[in-house]
Amino acid sequence: MTAQKEAPVKITNKDIAQEFLNRYDTFLFDCDGVLWLGSHALPYTQEILNLLKQLGKQLIFVTNNSTKSRLAYTKKFASFGIDIKEEQIFTSGYASAVYVRDFLKLQPGKDKVWVFGESGIGEELKLMGYESLGGNDSRLDVPFSASESPFLVDGLDKDVNCVIAGLDTKVNYHRLAVTLQYLQKDTVHFVGTNVDSTFPQKGHTFPGAGSMIESLAFSSNRRPSYCGKPNMNMLNTIVSAFNLDKSRCCMVGDRLNTDMKFGVEGGLGGTLLVLSGIETEERALEISADYPRPKFYIDKLGDIYTMIQ
Ligand SMILES: O=C(O)[C@H](O)[C@H](O)COP(=O)(O)O
Ligand SMILES: [Mg+2]
Questions:
Q1: Choosing from 15, 25, 102, 290, which is the catalytic residue?
Q2: Does 5 have pLDDT greater than 80?
Q3: Looking at the domain assignment, is residue 180 inside a domain?
Q4: What is the pLDDT of residues 25-38, one digit of tens each?
Q5: Which ligand 1 atom lies nearest to the CA of residue 194?
Q6: Residues contacting residue 221 through CB under 8 Å, at least 6 positions apart
Q7: What is the DSSP code (8-state) at residue 59?
Q8: How far apart are CA 77 and CA 67, in angstroms?
Q9: CA angle (232 as vertex; 66, 209 as ends), nearest 5
Q10: What is the three-state SS of 226-281?
Q11: Which ligand is nearest to the CA of 33?
Q12: Distance from C-alpha of 86 to C-alpha of 185, rounded to nearest angstrom
C-alpha cells in the first residue's frame, strides 16, 4: 500500500477550503459517519450538499451500508431535506447484485440467492430479476431448532447457488446456522457486501457487516468475495456509469481502510477524510502498510460550509 507521500492537509480555514473545492468537479461521498450517524444528520450536511450543487459540482454517494436499497436511500436523503436521484447512489448491496449478474452470471428465474442481511440486498436482486431467500423473512426471527426450522426440515433450496452476506441488525443463531448450511455446499458462491468491522452511530460504535461476514467465513472455512469499498469493481462501475475524469474526482469518507483506500487505489484526484465517524486525527496522520493516508482531512464535512460563508 503506497502511503500518501506528502502529509495530509487539514482543512482549517476559508482559503484552504476554497482551494480544496476548486480542485474537483465530482465528489464521491461515503454516507455513514460523513453525512449522518444512523438517523442523526451531521451538522450542515444539507447546507454543504446544496452549496456544492449550486457550485455545479457532481455529487455521487457510495455507501458500504447494504441495509437499504438505492431507492430507499433516496427517501432517507429526502427525510433530511436533500433531493438525490437513485442513480446517484451506490450501495454495497447494489455492488453485490451487480457482481452476481455480471461476474458470476447467475441466471435470473433459475438461480436463487440466499441473503444474510437486510432488505437492501433482496430489493436490488429483485430489480435484476433474481429471487432471494432468507434476509428479513420473519421465520428467521424465532429461536433456532434444527428439527423445526422451515429452512431445514424440507431440505435446502436446491436452486440457491449464491450466498450474499451483509450487515444484519437482526443477526441471530437461526440466520447464522441456515446460512452456514448453504456455505457448506461448494457449488454455492460466497459473496460479502463489505469488510467494515464497525458501524458508527451517534455516541457509539457498533459491530459492522465485516464482523458478521467474517463469522460466517470462520465457521465455513471459506473466503467471501467482497464487493463494497475498496473493491475496484465498484469504483469502475461508478466511473463508467458517469464517464468520470478521475483526476477531477474526490472521495470523501470516514474510514481509512475502505473509503481512503478506495479513492487512492482507484486513482482519484483526491481524498478527504472526515473525523466525524470512525477515524481519529492520529490515525489520519500515521503511516500504515494497510491503508493510504488521505490528501486532506477535516473534523466534519459541514465545516467546509461554515468556513466559506
Ligand atoms: O457495517 C457496515 O456495513 C458499515 O459500517 C456501514 O454501513 C458503512 O457505511 P458507509 O460508511 O460506507 O456509508
Ligand atoms: Mg462511513
A1: 25
A2: no
A3: yes
A4: 999 999 999 999 99
A5: 3
A6: none
A7: E
A8: 15
A9: 30
A10: ECCCCCHHHHHHHHHHHCCCHHHEEEEECCHHHHHHHHHHCCCCEEEEECCCCCCH
A11: 2
A12: 35
Where residue 275 falls among pLDDT bands split at 50, 70, 90? very high
- Interatomic CA distance for residues 84 and 277, integer angstroms: 22
Q: Is residue 170 part of a domain?
A: yes
Atom 11, ligand 1: residue with shortest CA distance: 32
Question: Among this protein's residues, is 32 annotated catalytic?
Answer: no
Q: Which three cell numbers stand for residue 120?
A: 437492501
Confirm whether 86 is domain-assigned: no
Cell 440467492 sits at which residue? 113
Q: What CATH number does residue 164 fall under?
A: 3.40.50.1000
| CA max distance for the chain | 67
Q: Ligand 1: does its nearest atom lie under 6 Å from the Cβ of 271? A: no
Nine cell digits for residue 154? 424440507
Question: Letter for the amino acid at 238?
Answer: I
Give buried/exposed letters for 151-181 (b at 16+ CB in 10 A, else e). Answer: bbeeebeeebbbbbbbbbeebeebbbbbbbb
| Dist CA 160 CA 257 (whole Å) | 32
Helices (H), the chain: 14-23, 45-54, 70-79, 92-102, 119-127, 173-183, 209-220, 232-242, 261-265, 281-285, 302-307
User: Is residue 293 included in any domain, yes or no?
Assistant: no
Domain count, the chain: 1
User: What is the domain range of residue 219?
Assistant: 109-223
Confidence of residue 6 (pLDDT cuts 50, 70, 90): confident
pLDDT, one tens digit per residue, over 212-240 is: 999 999 999 999 999 999 999 999 999 99
